[in-house]
Amino acid sequence: MVTQAILAPKDEQVASSGTTSLLSWAILLGGFLTLAVALYLVVTTRSSLPFWDGWAQIEPAATGVSPLSPAWLWRQHNEHRLILPKLFLAADLELFQARQIFLLASILAIQLLHWGLLGWSMRVLGGWRGPLWRTGVGLAAFCLFCPAQWQNFVWGFQVCFVLPQLFATASFVALLLYSREAQQEPATVPHSRFLVLSVLAALGATYSLANGTLLWPLLVLAALCLRLRARAVLSFALTGTISTVLYLHHYVRPEKHADPITSLKSPLTLLKYWARYFSNSWTHPGIHPWEVIALAALLVLLAWHLRALSGLRAFRPFAVQLALTLLFCAGTALLTATGRSNFGVGQALASRYQTVALLFWCCLGLLWLGATWFARSRMPHAFLMAQLCLLLIFARAAALARYPLMEAGQHAFSQSSVTAALVSGVYDQETLSRWAKPELDMLLREVPYIRANRLSVFSGELPSELGKPVTSVFPASAAGECVGFVKAVTPIDDASGRGLRLAGWVWDTKHHRLPSAIVVASNGTITGLGAAGGEVANGHTLYPGISSDEVVFLAFFPEPQPGALVNVYAILPGRPATACYFDGWRQTFDAGPHSPGGQHVSLPLAVP
Q1: What is the C-alpha separation between 337 and 333, in angstroms, rounded?
Q2: Within 13 Å of residue 312, how many CA atoms lie on the same side as its CB?
Q3: How do residues 198-247 score in pLDDT, each as one tens digit?
Q4: Could you tell me if 308 and 371 are in contact, meaning their C-beta atoms sit under 8 angstroms apart?
Q5: Which residue spans of the chain are classified as CATH 2.60.40?
Q6: What are phi and psi of 580, to 5 degrees?
Q7: Considering the entire predicted model, what is its pTM?
Q8: Could you tell me whether strands 578-586 and 497-508 are parallel, antiparallel, or unpaired per DSSP bridges?
């Protein structure tokens, strides 16, 4: 067996000892820590509100169409046929009240399955053991869960973006298992189970996102290069042809997207887009000169290791899998460029594309690790140097993790602000359009449906607490446990009704963090909600003890009766959660905030 011959017992003893073994555990730990950061990201930024394309989840039900109807499942979404992702959306709608929890959990589960499949194929197809396997698994975890792809961890609709990569890996692994069976018993016809699995996985990718169609030519090419029987080649060719013809049947190019044929006439623009797509994994807006030097040194090191490529023969099946995945990722970036380059090269920097880009770098890194490991007899320190480089990359990523976490936090604040406006019944166009502009009309059409059916943001506890006395819902916190300031009161005059938007800053001094929510009460009755977490320059200097610049809050409530006493409370976490009063005023709303012209009124704050 190839696997048994790759690592002899003596090699195992050498590999499991010394510095490389210690570093492999450190890299594996780095992978698990990256997974922990991804889990933290999902938990702390989760919102029940659909975002952008995610409103398509509600559309069929709101218009009286079953989300499981074949016509809806087949309907084109932009350039995609999202049959499998729409099944996830339907499950979340029908079984989990469209709260996005199922979708976000599915995204994590898909990435975990992908990680497990990569680790398994390292052992079965590559024969990797000991430090090499631990190092490879750590690198795979780092790339699959890196927060640079934060959009795909906070946006439930993006289940469609992680599925194709899992299916691609599954298809390639099944193809190579089929090939291994054919090589072991060349005189007999190999069992077709792996061939069928490879075809089904490719179909799954095709009907998860448009880039899945790239698998068919790759599978045909791989079957030819592996010298598989004609039935295998024909299975991929015929299934791929039929699938592609069906995919393109009644296909309509999205109006706002570039024409792929026309895009091919501008190869330089495509190349720039493609390069930005992958280089974004290594850069950030505040990159320093020393980082450029370090990247250049890494390229020099890779060039020096080129002579280690002869080691690829030792784990050829797994190397073929990695090469196919590299081609799939590179083709995905090119396909994206042909349809999106009209939005500008900067659009390639979107966080969601990092899921593909990081998988590309993961496969390249795994090829590098395997090559240096199996070339140890000629280059004894090459693998050690590769491990050290990985640890430096991990350390740099840890130092930069605050940037994607901050971006995800601002996304969560915006989602929470829109949620507060919708649940409070104050449809502040400025707040809604700033965040939901592409789908604002759809959002406003579908809000009555989700409100009536207690879906999404209307399915939790806070919406049901509107109209109740504050004291019956939240016990009062002790004096001085929060601090805040209302900076502006803005009138909202919408067709759905008049209301107010409050803006200011707030801090939970008891727990040294942001409050979990904001509640507005008129004459002691809860009438509005708010969210905290917006960023302001030098926010940490607003009050002693504040440790973050993300202290801005927005709150919304319907227009109170003239002379009503309006109080603002910060909801502090605990069992039970408590309401901390941090502002109140008595206002006759015939003037002031509702004066013509919608002036902003600054109000002083008295902290009890």
Answers
A1: 6
A2: 16
A3: 999 999 999 999 999 999 999 999 999 998 989 999 999 999 999 999 99
A4: yes
A5: 461-594
A6: -105, 115
A7: 0.88
A8: unpaired
